[in-house]
Design brief:
The protein has 9 helices and 4 strands, in the order αααααααββαββα.
Length: 231
């Protein structure tokens, strides 16, 4: 390649970077203008309010995560982590945990973090646990906790009656009365469908392939995930 070709390609690369940077600046200015319309101030003030709020919220959640993790570490009988977490797991875990604005879910992140960092923990370091926790709501987390609070050896085969969720669950009974069992509200059915999509539970099907939200079956993945989020 001649020096002229090299210079030409470099110039084109610089132009492309400039275009991307310009678009990012334009987008930021447009959003600043959008905010300023609602706060009765200049664009700079609008962007400043937005950025400062994001920084504060992120800092606030980071502080809470650190405090909860330290507290849980002490509850586990540790004064410091005893197992190093690989960066490929630590980075997505800490990023998601510091962005989580729900205290209940962030506590699950803190418990997972401590379990990952505890060399005596039986919890294995699995990326799938992080992926699951990123995709569940507080309601779904509560439902999982209730389902796996029952003896796994019984529910794995007999299933779990979920008609009274989110308040309570019961071990399924194969007594021929399954047709009379109630189904939970739609919000709970949607939550169960997402948990089934993530592999945390199994939903029974009709002969025609339709979902039956009367009893569900725990899964090995669901059981392991709940253990990863339990100190």
């Amino acid at each position: 390649m001649s020096s002229e070709d090299s210079v030409s390609q470099t110039a084109k690369a610089v132009q492309e970077v400039a275009k991307v940077t310009s678009k990012a600046i334009d987008a930021g200015q447009r959003f600043g203008g959008f905010i300023s319309r609602y706060v009765a101030g200049p664009i700079e003030q609008g962007m400043g309010i937005f950025e400062d709020k994001l920084k504060y919220m992120r800092w606030e959640r980071q502080v809470r995560l650190m405090q909860r993790a330290e507290q849980l570490l002490l509850e586990a009988g540790l004064t410091r982590p005893t197992r190093a977490i690989p960066l490929k797991l630590a980075i997505p875990l800490l990023e998601a945990a510091s962005l989580e604005d729900d205290d209940y879910i962030q506590d699950l992140w803190a418990r997972m973090l401590v379990n990952f960092a505890n060399g005596s923990s039986h919890v294995s370091l699995q990326r799938v646990y992080i992926a699951i926790l990123e995709q569940i709501t507080p309601l779904e987390a509560v439902i999982l906790h209730k389902i796996y609070s029952l003896p796994y050896d019984e529910t794995h085969h007999d299933g779990v009656e979920v008609g009274k969720l989110p308040d309570e669950v019961a071990v399924g009974k194969d007594d021929g009365k399954g047709k009379s069992l109630p189904e939970p509200p739609e919000a709970v059915r949607l939550a169960l469908a997402n948990l089934a999509r993530l592999g945390c539970i199994g939903i029974r099907k009709s002969w025609g392939g339709g979902e039956i939200f009367k009893t569900v079956n725990p899964t090995l993945l669901g059981k392991s995930f709940v253990e990863a989020c339990t100190l």
